[in-house]
Amino acid sequence: MNLRKESEKRLLVVLLCLILVVAWFKNGSEVKSEVESSEKVEDQKTTESGLESEFRSEQYGLDPVDPANFTVKSRPKIPCMGDCITVQGLLKDWPEAKPKGAYYVLIPSMKRMKFVLRIFRQIRSNLLGLYPVIVLCMTSTCPKSFPRDSANGTDRLFYQRVQQEAPSFLRRPIPRNTSCNKFEQMYHREMNRFQSLRIYDEPILSQFEYLLRLNDVSEIPRPVSFDIFKFTKTHNITYGYRGIEFEKKVCTRGLWEASRDYLLKNDIDPQFFSQWPPRRSFYNNFEISKSSLWLSQEYKALLTYFDRLGGIFYHRWGDGAMRTIAVSMFVPRSQVHHFGNVPYRHGEYLPEVSPGFDKVEGSDYVEDFLDPNLDVE
Ligand SMILES: *[C@@H]1O[C@H](CO)[C@@H](O)[C@H](O)[C@H]1NC(C)=O
Ligand SMILES: *[C@@H]1O[C@H](CO)[C@@H](O)[C@H](O)[C@H]1NC(C)=O
Ligand SMILES: *[C@@H]1O[C@H](CO)[C@@H](O)[C@H](O)[C@H]1NC(C)=O
Ligand SMILES: *[C@@H]1O[C@H](CO)[C@@H](O)[C@H](O)[C@H]1NC(C)=O
Ligand SMILES: *[C@@H]1O[C@H](CO)[C@@H](O)[C@H](O)[C@H]1NC(C)=O
Fold it and tell me: Following CA atoms 100, 272, 241, 335 in sequence, which dihedral angle do they give, to the nearest 10 degrees?
């Protein structure tokens, strides 16, 4: 009898424990699935029902901006001074048949000049056409001018110090670091903002018809057999890129959703935005473009909208993602070209042969996009 009671007791204890464990697990998974489902709601609202859903910027930690009612202020003209005047002179005597093209690099300080000189030497030995190389320096440490020396090549660069301005319209406090990049400094976000909007107002750049953007750690390690600017002009290319990247969700929080809202409220019929998968971006440290795209009213309006939402500072929206959205809205697919045959390297981050770079998995559309639609003659 006693024995039976003992075993019954044990069974009861085991059962109780089991119930507790199950309850605890269930609670955990409920909490987890709550988090997941709220994320899903954010996704669903924007990806599936997309254009029909109401976009509320606060939900994404952004400032409220009416996409159909904000003003794009025209900026006071930036005077052309220093090397800008030299460049102006060059363009006056520019050969008729040669596209008005230039390379440009934006740096945060003169410490980066040694890298600029490296890419400068590579441009001169590996790219055809002798187009000007323009260096823009953006922080308060940048000198107005600097000693030039033919011994190290600094005398053959065109240099311009550019101004940054703090955004005065943001309503939320700007976090020192974002979930996108915890170790990032504020000047990265300032450069991002400058690269996406303000840079094209610089008269040293706006005089050119085509711009090839590089950054200080870019490398063109081997010769290219054709003149990139001539190719771009001959084939009526508006936007040329070297690869496609995947952006982390936290780095583009609300950006694609805000873009859909913008299209809807402004009744814009986009070029290939609707087919393009969110969070894929043209890698833009090698980027060739027709400057008229960036100078257009439609581009300025869209980027001003992004700027007002505050995502550049709150979440570190990158100018790559913002430009990709603009290109997919305004540029016909046939005028976008993948320069897969240009050797390119970006320090350690992007070795020259990088399968993840030219081959983006998970989207047939993007894969198709990478097929060169034009042959180099
Ligand atoms: C269930 O989870 C919530 C949130 O984590 C916690 O506050 C609560 O105490 C848990 N309940 C049980 C019975 O474990
Ligand atoms: C547009 O915005 C201005 C100022 O923010 C406001 O006064 C005006 O009522 C708005 N117009 C519409 C149609 O919402
Ligand atoms: C180039 O030469 C100048 C003058 O000698 C010098 O001040 C400058 O630091 C040099 N720049 C680089 C990047 O080596
Ligand atoms: C954000 O930056 C501050 C100061 O640079 C640093 O102390 C802090 O640890 C950073 N936060 C995170 C989450 O890394
Ligand atoms: C070239 O591109 C422009 C837009 O940049 C377009 O208006 C024009 O029709 C295109 N020309 C040809 C021949 O495709």
Answer: -40
Say yes or no: CB of residue 113 within 6 Å of ligand 3: yes
Burial of 62 (0-12, 13-18, 19+ CB in 10 A): buried
* Token output for 18: 């089991």
Distance from Cα 151 to the centre of ligand 3, integer Å: 8
Give the model confidence (pLDDT) of 305-355 as tens digits. Answer: 999 999 999 999 999 999 999 999 999 999 999 888 888 888 766 666 554
Which sequence spans correspond to the domains of the chain? 96-370
Ligand 4 pocket: which of 182, 183, 186, 189 to mutate (most atoms within 8 A of CB):
182
Global confidence as pTM: 0.81
Token match 């070029």: residue? 271
Instruction: Say if ligand 4 is within 6 A of residue 185 CB.
Output: no
CATH value of 96-370 in 3.30.160.340, 3.90.550.10, 3.90.640.20, 1.10.3720.10: 3.90.550.10
Closest atom, ligand 5, to C-alpha of 238: 5
177 lines ligand 4 (CB under 6 A): yes
